[in-house]
Design a protein that fits this description.
Belongs to the class-II aminoacyl-tRNA synthetase family. The chain is α+β, with helices and mostly antiparallel strands. The chain has helices at about 5-10, 15-20, 70-80, 95-105, 160-170, 215-220, 225-230, 235-255, 295-305, 340-360, 390-395, 410-415, 430-440, 495-510, 520-525, 540-550, and strands at about 25-30, 35-45, 50-55, 120-130, 135-140, 145-150, 175-185, 190-200, 260, 265, 280, 285-290, 310-315, 330-335, 365-370, 375-380, 385, 450, 465, 470-475, 475-480, 485-490, 535-540. It is elongated, with a radius of gyration of 31 Å.
Length: about 575
């Protein structure tokens, strides 16, 4: 890079390629106002002719809003500019930048304007470049799309004073509305040539660090509005998240599922092994829990005759926060009568393959597993399947004890021998979960079904007997890049068995396991009316979005992730 280009690159909002030819020359000079100005002599790419370009750094330019917010507002009022006007629709059509690009990019020739009509465009000033006192170039951003605006005194219908006031007062970050003709510069840059209105709609009173960037996670996620202004790929992730949710909804709707909403607040939280958030309803004077899963409500709807039902919604679990866990998260759960695990295996493979194609354009996606390694994740059928109990016994070098006999000591000895730490309370489900996490989950990089769970780990699943003679839960989990993204059951519909399993869970809860499920007599009573053979399925939407967008942390796919409060 030439010295002049290097110097330009250090100025926020300036792209040297748009200002200089390879041999352009630059020099610094000080003005009487003590502002540092960079005078560039060369050919402006967007104008196509030799001129002198002045880019100012200092108050109101680049990133350096050295003027305080109150002083800026006072200055705008002094100049007769209303900082926060009521929005008034202009007399000419207001158009979207994306529509202008789509309609005019190919239609217009270089160096021409469509003078048959005027349009109005709103947006945020992303950059400002002063060619002279009578020519200023702006780049506007609107909903992720950019267009250049040319503010030329020769084309502007207002008087000299208004032109000068606007040219000097409007800054990077300001939200504006302008009116003019759409055209192209001589070098083909699609632009709006401002002719009439150029109005401030809302000023930006603080610097937007486009130059220095915003990389510190603490600053990014505590100031998400600023993060999205600086790191535009953050909004792209949210757009893909929307695509994922739309796909899931369309997929299930097209298969005649009924979308419903079930309570977020209830007198107890069941449907999953998790610690709930507890609150108090003043009007009812009673303790209430935020839901950890909608499962029990959805199965009651199946009992009531809604034989294909689903819910997309928020769940809340009062547990740890890490790269894959946020206390508030989004899931999709569906329940289908007269279906089994075989149906769910097939639907899961089909849904994820088609989802990947819809969102990314391919069933194979790149995923960055470390700073130096990226792998391809393939959602093409068939997914790998691992029988949990057989795999554990192979890795541990012998058969596991009969879990129905509560072999806590034996399992803890196995954990100690293999350096697997299990925190208290030491219940069979917790110990088995740790063993699976240590020995099997790390192998699940490509999409992998884990099935054949011990019944004791799955209190809501029907039990099935394998050809080997072993009885296991009718359940599977799907892991991708080590993350659990799907959990599916053949649902237990025997009310007597369900009461027995809830009783065992209650014992675990009384022994200190805060994640064990409580007894739910209302649900067991509902089962007595008859739950058809039903297959149930749940997906962690946030984790799927992580994988499809290549995001390493769950907070990247949440608009506003949970953050620890700052100490005063």
């Amino acid at each position: 890079m030439s010295a002049s280009a290097l110097l330009l690159s250090r100025i926020p909002g300036i792209n040297p390629a748009r200002l200089l030819q390879p041999h352009a020359k630059a020099c610094l000079r000080n003005t009487a106002s003590k502002r540092t100005q960079l005078v560039v002599q060369g050919t402006r790419v967007t104008q196509g002719r030799l001129l002198t370009t002045t880019v100012t750094t200092g108050p109101g330019s680049a990133e350096g809003h050295s003027i305080k917010p109150a002083a800026r507002l006072e200055e705008l009022n002094r100049l007769g500019i209303t900082p926060y006007p009521r929005y008034q629709a202009p007399k000419v059509p207001t158009v979207l930048v994306r529509d202008v690009i789509q309609e005019c990019e190919r239609r217009l020739e270089n160096g021409t304007k469509d003078e048959t009509k005027k349009v109005s465009i709103c947006g945020r000033i992303h950059s400002k470049r002063e060619s002279s006192a009578k020519l200023v170039w702006f780049d506007l951003i609107q909903d992720g799309h950019s267009i250049q605006a040319v503010f030329n005194r020769r084309l502007y219908a207002g008087d000299d004073k208004t032109f000068e006031t606007i040219a000097k007062s409007f800054q990077r970050g300001d939200i504006v509305q302008l009116t003019g003709h759409v055209g192209k510069t001589k070098t083909g840059q699609l632009s709006v040539f401002i002719t009439d209105g150029f109005e401030l709609l809302s000023p930006c009173l603080h610097p937007i660090p486009t130059r220095s960037g915003l990389k510190d996670p603490e600053k990014r996620f505590r100031n998400r509005h600023l993060d999205f202004l600086v790191n535009r790929d953050g909004l792209d992730v949210l757009r893909k998240r929307t695509q994922v949710i739309k796909f899931i909804r369309n997929y299930l709707d097209s298969r005649h599922f009924l979308e419903v909403e079930t309570p977020i607040l209830s007198t107890q939280a069941g449907g999953a092994n998790a610690k709930p958030f507890v609150t108090h309803a003043n009007a009812l004077d009673m303790e209430m829990h935020m839901r950890v899963a909608p499962e029990l409500f959805l199965k009651q709807l199946v009992i009531g005759g809604a034989e294909r039902v689903y819910e997309l919604g928020k769940q809340f679990r009062n547990e740890g926060i890490d790269a894959d866990h946020n206390p508030e998260f989004t899931t999709c759960e569906f329940y289908q009568a007269y279906a089994n695990l075989d149906n769910l295996f097939e639907m899961t493979e089909d849904m994820l393959r088609e989802m990947a194609k819809s969102v990314t354009g391919s069933s194979t996606i790149p995923y960055k597993v470390s700073e130096t390694e990226t792998i391809d994740i393939s959602f093409d059928k068939p997914f790998r399947k691992i029988n949990i109990m057989e795999c554990l016994e192979e890795k541990l070098g012998g058969p596991l004890p009969d879990l129905e006999n509560e072999p806590v000591t034996e399992l803890l000895d196995l954990c100690k021998k293999n350096r697997v730490f299990v925190s208290a309370p030491h219940t069979i489900p917790r110990i088995m979960d740790k063993l699976i996490s240590a020995f099997i989950e790390p192998e699940c990089v490509q999409p992998t079904f884990l099935w054949g769970h011990p019944i004791i780990m799955s209190p809501l699943a029907k039990d099935i007997k394998l050809a080997s003679g072993r009885t296991v839960a009718g359940r599977f989990e799907l892991f991708v890049v080590g993350k659990e993204i799907v959990n599916a059951y053949e649902e237990l519909n025997d009310p007597t068995q369900q009461r027995d399993r809830f009783t065992k869970q209650q014992t675990d809860k009384e022994n200190g396991d805060e994640e064990a499920q409580p007894m739910d007599q209302a649900f067991c009573s509902a089962l007595e009316y008859g739950l058809p053979p039903t297959a149930g399925w749940g997906m962690g939407v946030d984790r799927v979005c992580q994988i499809l967008t290549g995001s390493g942390h769950i907070r990247d796919v949440l608009a506003f992730p949970t953050m620890r409060a700052l100490k005063e």
